[in-house]
Amino acid sequence: xxxxxxxxxALVCASSKGLGLGCAEALAExxxxxxxxxxxxxxxxxxxxxxxxxxxxxxxxxxxxxxxxEGQAKVLKAAEGVDILVNNAGGPPPGMWSDWxxxxxxxxxxxxMLAPIALMKxxxxxxxxxxxxxxxxxxxxxVKAPIAVLGLSNSARAxxxxxxxxxxxxxxxxxxxxNNLQPGIHATDRAVAxxxxxxxxxxxxxxxxxxxxxxxxxxxxxxTRGEFGATCAFLCSQHAGxxxxxxxxxxxxxxxxxx
Length: 259
Prior knowledge:
Belongs to the short-chain dehydrogenases/reductases (SDR) family. InterPro entries: NAD(P)-bd_dom_sf, SDR, SDR_fam. The protein is an alpha/beta fold. Helices cover about 45% and strands about 15% of the residues. Strands 3-2-1-4-5-6-7 form a 7-stranded parallel beta sheet, with helices on both faces. It starts with 8 loop residues before the first strand and ends in a 9-residue tail after the last strand. About 40% of the residues are buried. The model has no long low-confidence stretch (mean pLDDT about 95).
């Protein structure tokens, strides 16, 4: 399908690997020029060069921590006038409710709620003025079905979801859509970290931990960054202008819900 966004510019955060990279790759395949951000400069540049070589689009890299005001300013300077924003950041560490204090929650909010809000506030006015824009926030399945050991993520991402619910409906009349993607387990570093924790806790191998988790997914496997990225690219396309303020699960059927 022709997505109709060739020549647009997109800022994709945390895009040197994982789901962010999947989104960057899919947008590049559609002809979108990119501003890619991540904290690790070398991994970011390696990913960007691979995209340049494969898809021939323009890619600007900004190595910065998007959770900080300094990082946001650096990224926004490079991303001025973008048509598409993909918000993404690594999830907070797992743990128990008794493990976390105020500083832990502030760090989670900075990365997974306040940073995406800051980028939206900065970039939405330009999109509205031009009469077209797309924002996709990568949140988590835990927003719909909270995961006990991911309480920091549950809290921060649920707050972002509430913010988007109202904001999306205020900007839709200007040709700008905001939607959230809620990933379940995908074959990324995050899954490796979670499986490592299960492996250590239960005294089983990584292969057994992965098989155990895969058995809880009706699709019988982890998702891939490619299929996640393709969904993101569709939401950013000319065909998705009537999808407003939605939370779309990509979890292989793991969340047993009708809504």
